[in-house]
Amino acid sequence: MNIGEATANVTDIEGAGSRNRSKTITAGFMPGRFALRDAWFPVVHSKLVGTRPVRRAIHGEPIYLIREGGIVFAYEDSPLDRQRGRLRASEFTAGTGCWPALEKYGYVWVWYGNNDNASIDLIPHLPVLPENGMPRYFGGSVVFDCSYELNCENLLDLTHFDFLHSVLTGDPLSEQDEITVSSTSETVTQVRRATNRPVPKGQKWFVRSKSQDLVAATIMHVRSGVCVLNIDWDPGVDVHMVHPCTPESPYRTRTAYTFNPQHCSRPARYLFPTAAHLIGSQDNYATKPQNQLYQTEQTSVADMNSRFDTAGIRYRKVYQELVNRQQKGDFSYRDDGHPGRDVRQELDLDRPRRGGRTA
């Protein structure tokens, strides 16, 4: 798909046509040019914040996180600048120099936007993680050399891991493979269901079966870039994941990921998270060269899309609608896309598993 201006009709993409060049539904889509506001960003794992400051950023705005009296604070300025009285006191902290921050699901969440609108109810529902988070071993941080919008589109594509990460996740061969896409005013969801796939090389040592079924679901919170995933290889490992795409700049995205492996042997449970940096480097290898073109307005190059690009086109549509609303001063959340709503059913977390032998 040409990554300049989205020019595909969602209805056409979801139909039987193999390639589409139809009406523009997200005219003027320009990632990296507008910072969506009024959202919680999970900027760092809670366990990494102690009495020494940790520096992060959201849309180029610096954040210094430190734990004081057991409570995490997020300041605009470094401890040295604050000692010297050099305070930014910007609009993002309502002139206080301190960002709204709280802890949940093992993350420190920082509010980016109007402080009067900050509410704990607007933190995305993460049913794949316990309220107090996972042990430190199951989390880490990967930096991508691209905008968070491009990173979000990559995570919404549940077919790309058949090619980039095939050793661990498997190839595209299956008896049946179905992909569905849905969206709200704030989120885009893709669900993939495939049956009788060959067991990937990286799982054969702990999966004693000739084939697997796959159910993969991903929910992308467009405003904040928080991605919630459930990828279930049955028999085999069921990996619950959170991959936040935190925009540090138009050319840098930080993902403070968390894994929660299920239904696998103990060695596999502890070895699976070690693949995060390998998978991250493979994704960065694919997205980094695209970033410049992705952020360049294309007016003369046709944007060719197939039905497999539906999630990405839907993402651009929701993203641009949010930009248009916020440019007019509307930062509210609509009921259909409330971040705190229960998404267990969307992630297919309660489906029965056929099971099978594992090592």
What does this structure look like?
The chain has 359 residues and is of the alpha+beta class. The chain has 2 domains: 10-16 and 23-32 and 142-329, Naphthalene 1,2-dioxygenase Alpha Subunit, Chain A, domain 1 (Alpha-Beta Complex), CATH 3.90.380; 39-135, 3-layer Sandwich (Rieske Iron-sulfur Protein), CATH 2.102.10. Helices cover 18% and strands 29% of the residues. It has helices at 10-13, 79-83, 148-156, 161-164, 166-169, 266-271, 276-287, 291-294, 310-327, and strands at 39-45, 54-58, 61-68, 71-75, 98-99, 101-104, 107-112, 139-144, 176-183, 187-198, 211-221, 226-234, 238-244, 246-249, 252-262. The relative contact order is 0.21.
Give the overall average pLDDT: 86
N-to-C SSE string, H for helix and E for strand: HEEEEHEEEEHHHEEEEEEEHHHH
CATH architecture of the largest domain: Alpha-Beta Complex
Q: How does the overall form come out from the CA principal axes? A: globular
**Class from secondary-structure proportions:** alpha+beta
Strand content: 25-35%
Helix proportion of residues, in percent?
Answer: 10-25%
| N-to-C CA distance | 41 Å
Q: What does the radius of gyration come to?
A: 21 Å
Low-pLDDT sequence parts = 1-25
At the fourth CATH level, what is the homologous superfamily of the largest domain? Naphthalene 1,2-dioxygenase Alpha Subunit, Chain A, domain 1
CATH class of the largest domain: Alpha Beta
Enter the CATH topology name of the largest domain: Naphthalene 1,2-dioxygenase Alpha Subunit, Chain A, domain 1
Number of domains: 2
Largest sheet: 8 strands, antiparallel
